[in-house]
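User: what does the whole thing look like in 3D?
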Amino acid sequence: MRAVSKVKQHSIARKSLRRTLFFIVLILLAGSTFDAYNQAQLALVLILFIGVLSVTLLTGISGQLSLGQGALMAVGGYCMALLITNKGYSIWVAIPLAIVGAAIAGLLLGISAARLSGPYLAGTTLVIALAIPTLSNRFMSVLKGDEGLPVDVGYPPNWFTKLFGEPSYEQWQLYVALPFAAIALFFASNILLSRTGRMWRAIRDNETAASLSGVNFSRQKIFVFVVSATFAGLSGALYGLRGLVGPSVYPVSLSLTLLTAAVLGGIRSIFGAFIGTVIVVFLPDWIEAVLGSFELSEQVSNFMPALISSLLLILTVVINPAGVAGTHLHKHK
Amino acid sequence: METFLAALFSGTSRGAIYALVALGLVIVWRGAGIVNFAQMGQAMFSTYIASTMITNGYSYWLGFIVAILVGAAMGALLDILVMRPLSNKKKTELLSSDSMRAAVPVIASLGILGVLQALAGIIWAAEERGFPAPYPQEGFTVANNVMPFTSFDVFVISIVLATLLATTLFFKKTGVGLAMRATALNAEVARLSGIRTNFTRSLSWGFSGAASSLAGLLITPTSNLSPNTLDLVLIIGFTAAVVGGLDSPAGSVIGGFLVGMVISFVSFYDTPEDVFLSILSVLLLVLIIRPRGIFGAKDARRV
Amino acid sequence: MLEVKDLVTSFGSVVALDGISFTAHESKITTVIGANGAGKSTLLRTISGLEHPSTGSITWRGKSVIGMRPEDIVRAGIAHVPEGHAVISELSVEENMSMGSLFRRRKFKSDVAAAQDEMYELFPRLKERRKQLAGTLSGGERQMLAISRALVSRPQLLLLDEPSLGLAPLVVEQIIDSINILCRSTGLTVLLVEQNANTALGVADHGVLLALGKVVADRPAAELKADANLRAAYLGY
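Assistant: Here's the predicted 3D structure for the full assembly of 873 residues, as structure tokens:
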């Protein structure tokens, strides 16, 4: 028995590894053809993709709707920024520690949310998403209030420039985000394919049956929150590295953006999470490309992306709840 | 003492508005099993319509009435266009589990909120604007002291109490009210009694839309109007509804006043910045000690 | 006359009704009996529009009811009392009862009160408790209330699902008797689903025996009651 499951685990890991390598090659190819602006956009896709994966795992796979993922991102961002500005750590040390910080926040959130479900959970996490950023004013001396803590990706180390030449700032953003996104993808894929993923789906589909079949479901629910928080924390840390960690960087709308991306792409699949993130990030550019010739006022063009993505969100849930990746879904639901 | 009175009065008048918001949420929750996160987006939109009418020279009261009617129509329309088609999709694989059935309407309501806020931004621009009050917002003077209570506060409290009374009578005494309650409590038995539940459910949405539009009209004179201003009110209303029990209309009203008091005392004695944290603490406290709310039915788990 | 022909209703891959055909005649009591899981409740739920058949036809007085919504089927004169004393516990007895005639309150204003009074006459215990919440009633009283709620809609066809479920024999007798009297005096057509075959066949004119979603016998009730072989094979006594 044990031997069989070990073989299976290897094949799952191999499958995830193949996906991840394919992903890395795809991003590098795309990155090399893009101009500087789109390279920065692609870096943003990678960063948010990690955050969207946290929604896919939490909501799509285990059925718990949280609107507070942006708050977990803020926790990751602040942890990292404090370690960098106060302790002088490099981002390569600060980011893993920030993930741990977010995981602890996820644990606390999970413990208080384990008994909540449906709209109760959604509403409570929404309040959390609103309340957490106000902490920055409460602890002004450390968290610096509305001004926030400026951080950035810095410059590539010497060995990197020696090997690959001097990257532009946008390229460097992309190269920093890529390994993290690849690791996140690898882990998410492994979880989805493994026994853990099956267990989470069982919780989603029927709590009573899952607990009867021996799944300790409240412990599993908390565990899902912790795992999801590590993804959100990582995403939030990288998101802050774009220049600033502050309350305005992690508004409630960030949580909603993650949810929108996850739903548009297909809330149950990793592929969907990626597609959804691409849509959300590039939508403003596409809208401008289409509407640019119409000379719309700033007022209209500012709100166009929000209008279109919200409309797409409604249409998706009403007409095609499985999202863009819906057809992909059937292979491993 | 003066601070205490000021906090008490402001808590009562704010609490009355939160009670209205909570009632709107509870009625849709009972009628359709959905917490409508777009509710205050609808209120924001109809308040903008009133604001536009008033700045174009129409009377305050005409704008007031039109806003409430628009709120009601919008609520019913959202049910017909979005929520009803969604509930007819229950058999699809993605919606087969209870947890997703509860989550998907919430996602849809967030989409509606996004659409309404973007539309408001496009139509009315994003900068804040004021919204008039029909009665003066200066405190009464008693023996040369300015009291922390205004004639607008009196107006707010009396119109909310009148609305609550009318609502109670409507639900208790009329056939339509009975049909709406029956639909909310047990849709299958209601249908088998010949009640057109689709219709009564849309009525609930319309009622909730009207109530929250009224709340929007009453709260914007003391804050300001922008596409996002009422988000906070929704959160407070949700907390009030959970405190009172999502299943209990009467509880939601009491929850509204309670939360209004908490917020008022926190902002008078501590700092307004702690309002979010105090709401969160109240919410978590209730959910941990009494998850069904103070007045919620013990076994009313509908999720 | 209610005519059911080749009716098939399934839930996913489970076929609950597998080609059912029978007729229930006007002003008669037809009973549908069978073991647990034979498809009896599904049959009633399909007739009243709560479940949707995949094929087959249901006609009442020559008009098809397939595709109609449950609330419109009630309005067409078919009232369904579902299994399990279906009343709304949070509403009062009076409210539960008047629920059934809400749709008639404009057109037949004077008759609405009369219909309710008749019910209070038929079940005097309900009159005593009209202001009480239905949740405080005993099982038998709830069943009476559920039947009253159906009858105040003035149906021509009454679908009754296991009225005896969980009730004391004496109460069952009282309820079945009331139904019998009502049918004989007003010409109401009754389709009675029962697991308690003896009681049902005792009062019915005609009996339909279901097993695993199929009709295995369709005969006068007295004949069915006398057939010891069928009883032993399908009802187990």
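In plain terms: Residues 299-303 of chain B have pLDDT under 50 and may be disordered. The radius of gyration of chain B is 19 Å.
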